[in-house]
Specification:
Blueprint (H helix, E strand, L loop, with lengths): L24 H15 L6 H7 L4 H5 L5 H13 L12 H17 L4 H7 L5 H16 L4 H27 L2 H13 L6 H5 L1 H5 L6 H20 L1
Amino acid sequence: MSDPAPPPPWHTRSKRATAKPPLTQTAIVDAALRVLDRDGVESLSMRSVADELATGAASIYRHISSRDELLELVLDRVLAGVRTQPPDPDRWREQVAELATQIHRTLSAHRDIARIAMSSRPVGSNSVRINEAFLAILRTAGFGPRLCVLAVSRLSLYVTADVFERALFTRRDPQFWREVAAYYRSLPADLFPHTSSMVDSLAAGAGDHFRGGLDLLLDGLASQRDREDG
C-alpha cells in the first residue's frame, strides 16, 4: 500500500499526547516540602499538595494514607540532611554538641518544620538513625541506660523548641518586643530588682542563646555521669 497523502495545510494536525511522569511518594513529599516552605504548615494538606502537582487528592491517597503520615515523611526528608559519625568516647561532649547543632541548623532551614517535629512520632528512618547516633555516643562514653534515654529525650526537645521559638521571634513585629522592653523598664525596681537590673538582656529576646543552653545541659549531663560513677 502506498503512503497516505499528507493532509491539507488548513486541517488541524494531530498532536502527540505527552504523558505525565508517574506519581511517586518521593515526588509527593518533595511537593509537600515546597508547600510547607512557601505557605506554612497550616496550608499543608493533601489537597494543597495535589494542587502543587496538578493532580487530584485521590492520587495522593494512593501513595500516602493521611496528612499525619505526610507530615512524618516530610520531617524525615528534612532530617536526611543530618550526618552522623562513629562515636568517640574521648569526644562525647563535642560530638553531642556537633550533632545537636547540625539538627538545629537543618530544622531552621525549613519553615514550620519544628512544629511538625514537636507533634509527630519519631519513627522515620532518619529520626531513628539520629536517635541511635545520640545513644551510641553517650553509651560508648560510659553513660548508663537511664541517663542515655533522659539525655536524648531532653536534648531533642531543647533543640526543637529552640528552633520553634526562634521562628516565632523572627515573625514578630519589632514593635512587640519594644513594648515588652518598655513594660519591664516600667516595673518598680524595689519590687523587681533583678528584672530591673537585667532588663536589657531580658528585652533582647532569644538572641543566640542556643549554644549557651546546650552547654548547660551538657554540664549537667557530665555531672550526673560523675555522680553515677561515684
